[in-house]
Write a structure and sequence with these properties.
This protein has three domains: 44 residues, lambda repressor-like DNA-binding domains (434 Repressor (Amino-terminal Domain)), CATH 1.10.260.40; 134 residues, Response regulator (Rossmann fold, 3-Layer(aba) Sandwich); 142 residues, Response regulator (Rossmann fold), CATH 3.40.50. Helices cover 42% and strands 15% of the residues. 36% of the residues are buried.
């Protein structure tokens, strides 16, 4: 005999009275409650929090869904680790746990999320890698599950989202390169992928037009993410009929491959090709010449995401949070004026 049954037997009262006393119910007199708590402490009994939460219809867990793929599994990108740290720093103050839900490469993200929703595994969700049309958003709204999207989508009704300021980064980069004298500016723009890539592509075309430059599809390089993608696309850039003098990388880890391939060809960033990457990354800080990129606090981003999901969980009447996360230009030596580059 153990647990509530043992306490009830020792004290000569019903298990229901013991349960109500342990859970602070008002219909138990002070003397009985004191006896129950003293006996529970003496035998080292602690109520089953999971069972209690299940009875209340809560899990005290917030799910954070990410999508695994060969690139994220093989490179040293620390984006989500930094965001998780910020999210957890807030949730723990509210007695909540972060449950990371990694969707496998060969699984459908919608079906993966649907299974967790059906099990009532979490009280609220944070989703990432949003698609332009993302059925996960419709699912969460249909089930009335509080959620925040780390990224934008055209799906669903009004909801909370926080996204990186893709447009701001692209426009600042193109403006900077044009001011340095560059007119043939390429960008790595995967044709298929998350909505982030579509936003990047549109911003690239808009920024060129705003600077009076034509859009050349040969300079919108469709390549895979990661170091290998950066390595392979370098040859594509240099093989064009009228090669670009500058390139904007949609994914910062591509810079590792690009630097390597340029070195093999006897060339260097900043001297033969101006380079700007989307985001700062610790692995890039050891490259020479230093990389021009954009910095941000992943921890602070995670804090803001957590605060937004808590507001949805509390059913706050305030409008949903919808914001582009600011990123700050961090000049390096990889994008020199065209006049200072080798012909």
């Amino acid at each position: 005999m153990k647990g509530i049954a043992r306490l009830a037997s020792e004290l000569g009262i019903s298990t229901g009275t013991v349960s109500r006393a342990l859970n602070g119910k008002p219909d138990v007199n002070a003397e009985t409650r004191a006896r129950v708590l003293e006996a529970a402490q003496r035998i080292g009994y602690a109520p089953n929090a999971s069972a209690r939460n299940l009875a209340k219809g809560v899990t005290n867990s917030i799910g954070f869904m990410i999508e695994l793929n060969p690139v994220t599994a093989s490179n040293s990108d620390n984006f989500f680790m930094g965001v998780f740290d910020g999210v957890q720093s807030v949730l723990r103050l509210h007695g909540l746990e972060l449950l990371v839900l990694p969707c496998p490469t060969d699984d459908d993200p919608y079906l993966y999320l649907q299974r967790f929703v059906a099990r009532d595994t979490v009280d609220a969700m944070i989703i990432s890698a949003t698609q332009k049309i993302d059925p996960r958003i419709d699912l969460l709204q249909r089930r009335d599950i509080p959620f925040v999207a780390l990224g934008r989508s055209d799906s669903g009704r009004e909801y909370s989202w926080i996204d990186l300021d893709v447009e701001g980064v692209v426009h600042q980069s193109i403006d900077r390169l044009v001011a340095l004298g560059h007119r043939r500016i390429a960008a790595t723009v995967p044709v298929k992928g998350i909505n982030f890539t579509s936003l990047f592509h549109h911003a690239y075309r808009d920024a060129l037009a705003r600077n009076g430059l034509p859009y050349d599809p040969d300079l919108a390089i469709d390549t895979q993410w990661g170091e290998l993608g950066g390595y392979q696309m370098t040859d594509k850039l240099l093989a064009t009929l009228n090669p670009p003098t500058a390139v904007l990388l949609i994914y910062e880890m591509m810079a590792l491959g690009l630097y390597r391939r340029l070195a093999e060809l006897g060339k260097s960033p900043g001297r033969d090709l101006a380079v700007i990457t989307f985001r700062d990354e610790p692995a890039l800080r050891f490259l020479h010449p230093t990389v021009t990129c954009f910095s941000m606090s992943l921890h602070d981003l995670g804090v803001t995401v957590a605060e937004a999901v808590l507001a949805r969980l509390r059913r706050d009447p305030a409008p949903p949070v919808q914001m582009r996360w600011p990123m700050v230009l961090k000049p390096g030596d990889s994008d020199r004026p065209l006049s200072a580059m080798r012909p």
